[in-house]
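Please, structure for the following, as tokens.
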Amino acid sequence: MESRTLRQQIISMRQSFFDEEILDGQFTQLEQLEDRDNPNFVEEVLTLYFRDSTALLATLEQAMETVPIDFPKVDKMLHQLKGSSASVGANKVRNEINKTRELCQETKVEGAKAAFQELRKEHDTLKAKLEPYFHQLRQAGSAESAMRPR
């Protein structure tokens, strides 16, 4: 019974990511790559994404604080972040990257800085929502394997 409730929570949580447009279909495609030999594939990919993107965001923040801002350099880093975000289905993060890039290309310093803060916020939100989701998935997997006959 407890396992069923946990499964329902996981399903509901996952659906909310799509309803809120936090994630897109690319995330679903990653899920399809999971199998018995690699049951935590999506979590592993997202762990690497968060490690790399967090470091890149820190570098971007420093670049946004330099005077004058080297917009071509910032754009190159944003382009890299956009690609990795798109590959994991981080829809809202990617959308904020697009806004930030557009303002950088127009050399609108204050607008670009404000957009960058929104980008960071969406990145933090994504991480804060996915961490408990993956935790529940691990719990459900442990409960299922404990209930399986040997």
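The chain has six helices and no strands. The helical segments are 2-19, 25-31, 41-65, 71-88, 91-105, 109-147.
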